[in-house]
TrEMBL record:
One of its GO terms (molecular function) is monooxygenase activity. It comes from Phialocephala subalpina. InterPro entries: Diverse_substr_monoxygenases, Luciferase-like_dom, Luciferase-like_sf. Keywords: Flavoprotein, FMN, Monooxygenase, Oxidoreductase. It comes from the Eukaryota. Residues 16-152 form the Luciferase-like domain. This is Luciferase-like domain-containing protein. It holds the Pfam family Bac_luciferase.
């Protein structure tokens, strides 16, 4: 309520959640006050078949690795079709490939930054990070020998997805060093605005998950050098679609759309739907 007389909160509206699920159990109060949009935007990342199915059911936005426009377009079509099969509006699942732009006022400046960043790459750090993701100790393999996996290799779909991502856009031998460098650093020296425009026009994406190489330099370059070009081309807005409203309203471009839209599975878990599940201590009990 944030009322100077009544206080910040109404205790009658604060309920403990007792959730008993197959993979997760909790018995606690929420640690923060509700957002204006109530449920935060639900993002999903991961390109395995299980990850894609999970995204089709639950995600409002999806991060993808972004290899080529053709392969990403096929993934987006599959994802949207799966969302429709679950009874969702496929246009409300937003897709964001990752991109790491290296920017300069001239190609020479961008090339110099690329070479500076590349010289700072720590392949050992990249190897450790990637190994933690995939549950594979890359250190036990010869650093510069071709990396070949058997079908029963520990790490499952994740490491195959990583290798396929590298193969998709670079015709090079895959070694532990190459995989580690891709994890530690990723960049390209093409005209970035052209690349953005190509992806928007040919991959049915909704935006980009922009990764940085150097903080704050990468972000400063993005704002000062790239955004004005994208705005001039009509690829980026000059003002938010629904200024002053929530992130969800702007990502969906629907004025007044603060809560998760109808058709999303989480809508069955609103308080009005669950208030019949209150126990003797007014805790909400959910079993799945």
């Amino acid at each position: 309520m944030f009322d100077p007389v009544k206080g910040a909160y109404d205790p009658e509206k604060i309920h403990r959640i007792k959730f008993n699920g197959k993979h997760h159990k909790t018995n606690a109060f929420g640690a923060t006050h509700p957002l204006p949009q109530r449920t935060p935007i639900l993002f999903q990342a991961g390109a395995s078949s299980a990850g894609n199915d999970f995204a089709a059911k639950h995600a409002e936005a999806v991060f993808v690795s972004g290899q080529q426009t053709s392969s990403t377009l096929a993934l987006v079509k599959e994802l949207r079709a799966a969302a429709a099969a679950y009874g969702r509006d496929p246009s409300r699942v937003k897709v964001f490939p990752q991109i790491t732009p290296i920017l300069g006022r001239a190609m020479e400046e961008a090339q110099a930054k690329y070479e500076k960043y590349l010289a700072c790459v720590d392949y050992r750090g990249g190897m450790a990070k990637l190994g933690s993701y995939l549950n594979v100790d890359l250190g036990k393999y010869p650093l510069d020998e071709p990396f070949v996996l058997k079908k029963d290799t520990s790490g499952g779909q994740g490491i195959y997805a990583m290798m396929n991502s590298v193969k998709a856009h670079e015709a090079e031998v895959i070694t532990p060093r190459v995989l580690a460098q891709k994890m530690a650093f990723n960049g390209n020296t093409e005209m970035v605005a052209d690349v953005f425009e190509d992806w928007v026009n040919n991959a049915d994406i909704d935006g980009f998950n922009v990764a940085y190489v150097s903080n704050p330099e990468s972000y400063e370059d993005l704002v000062e050098l790239l955004v004005p070009v994208l705005q001039k081309r009509g690829l980026m807005w000059g003002e938010y679609t629904v200024p002053g409203e929530t992130y969800r309203g702007n990502i969906l471009r629907i004025p007044g759309q603060t809560a998760i839209p109808e058709g999303h599975r989480s809508r069955q878990f609103t308080f009005n739907d669950l208030k019949g599940n209150l126990d003797e201590n007014r805790a909400i009990v959910i079993s799945c």
